[in-house]
Amino acid sequence: MTDSALVTGASRGIGLGIATRLAQLGYALTVTARDANRLGEIAGHLRREGAADVHVVAADLADPATPEALVGGHEAEFGTMRALILNAGVGTAGPIAELPARRFDKTVAVNLTAPVAVLQAALPLLRAAAAADPARGAKIVALSSITGVYAEAGLAAYGATKAALISLVETLDAEESGNGVSATAIAPGHVDTDMSGWIKDRIPAETMIPVDDIVEIVDTLLRLSSRTVLPKLVLTRAGAGLYGA
Ligand SMILES: NC(=O)c1ccc[n+]([C@@H]2O[C@H](COP(=O)([O-])OP(=O)(O)OC[C@H]3O[C@@H](n4cnc5c(N)ncnc54)[C@H](OP(=O)(O)O)[C@@H]3O)[C@@H](O)[C@H]2O)c1
């Protein structure tokens, strides 16, 4: 059976890097983001890179209907799910004292509520993939952030959602890993993508963590047997002093 994966936020940055590697490994892919035109171009790119098939869903993860539609579409196309990459996220900067409630709610909706709902909808498909291949199991990778592990001034809303994502992943491991479905939260410092553009005047892009390093880790995680669980990985930017983004 062909392996299949669902990648959120696959149109740019880390998600595009991961989706490209999975295509090169021959996965059948569901890829999602909001920008339909860009996703169409990405689908062609992923097919050329070797994806067995590509299913595109252009949707806003802040819309409560998106997670069911996304996973339902994946099930209709591919039946089971060997890997779920919960990558899409939004950044929100600003001190707690001045944090607008609407921005907080939007950050929680995209970074936490949507991943929980996608995970809930996808669990039956992940369990089915694990049952079909118990030695490999099925994997979830969630993109958290180092700010979810070590608090950073000015990133309260973002860091809170990323800390919650780590807790979600660890609980999933406690509940599901005995049956072959396990999850890892990757918690990096600044990665060189569009998202970190706001701080590139102070932290040069060439000193940030490259997308390729995250991709290598995801590739390795997907090759681990179902007997090993790696709940959380903190990736520190060289020179940042271990606890800073
Ligand atoms: N870059 C960093 O420094 C860094 C560090 C630590 C952790 N992370 C985490 O890593 C993940 C990926 O980050 P990145 O740097 O690759 O981000 P990015 O370059 O900004 O890409 C974000 C991706 O998510 C999609 N997306 C954003 N909002 C969405 C929404 N409401 N609904 C559906 N899709 C949405 C975007 O596509 P559309 O705009 O077309 O929707 C895009 O594909 C995020 O969870 C981020 O928090 C990033």
Provide the descriptors you would attach to this structure in a database record:
245 residues, Rossmann fold, seven-stranded parallel beta sheet, 43% helix, binds NADP nicotinamide-adenine-dinucleotide phosphate
Question: What does this protein structure show overall?
Answer:
The chain is of the alpha/beta class and 245 residues long. It has a single domain (4-235), classed as 3-Layer(aba) Sandwich (Rossmann fold). 43% of the residues lie in helices and 16% in strands. The protein has six helices and seven strands. It has helices at 13-24, 36-49, 66-78, 101-132, 156-176, 211-223, and strands spanning 4-8, 28-33, 53-58, 83-86, 138-143, 181-188, 232-235. Strands 3-2-1-4-5-6-7 form a seven-stranded parallel sheet, with helices on both faces. The longest helix has 32 residues, at 101-132. The protein is globular. The N and C termini lie far apart (40 Å). The model has no long low-confidence stretch (mean pLDDT 97).
What is the secondary structure topology, with strand pairs?
Elements: E1 4-8, H1 13-24, E2 28-33, H2 36-49, E3 53-58, H3 66-78, E4 83-86, H4 101-132, E5 138-143, H5 156-176, E6 181-188, H6 211-223, E7 232-235
Parallel strand pairs: 1-2, 1-4, 2-3, 4-5, 5-6, 6-7
This protein binds NADP nicotinamide-adenine-dinucleotide phosphate.
- What count of domains describes the coordinates? 1
Structural class: alpha/beta
Radius of gyration: 17 Å
Q: Strand-residue fraction?
A: 15-25%
Bound molecules: NADP nicotinamide-adenine-dinucleotide phosphate
Largest sheet: 7 strands, parallel
Instruction: Give the CATH H-level superfamily.
Output: NAD(P)-binding Rossmann-like Domain
What percentage of residues falls in helices of 4 or more residues? 40-55%
Average pLDDT taken over every residue? 97
Give the SSE order as H and E letters.
EHEHEHEHEHEHE
- Strands of the widest sheet, in order across it, are 3-2-1-4-5-6-7
The CATH topology corresponds to Rossmann fold
Overall number of strands: 7
Low-confidence stretches: none
Q: What is the distance, rounded to the nearest whole angstrom, between the alpha carbons of the first and last residues?
A: 40 Å
CATH top level is Alpha Beta
The number of distinct helices, counting runs of at least 4 residues, comes to 6
Shape: globular
By CATH, the architecture is named: 3-Layer(aba) Sandwich
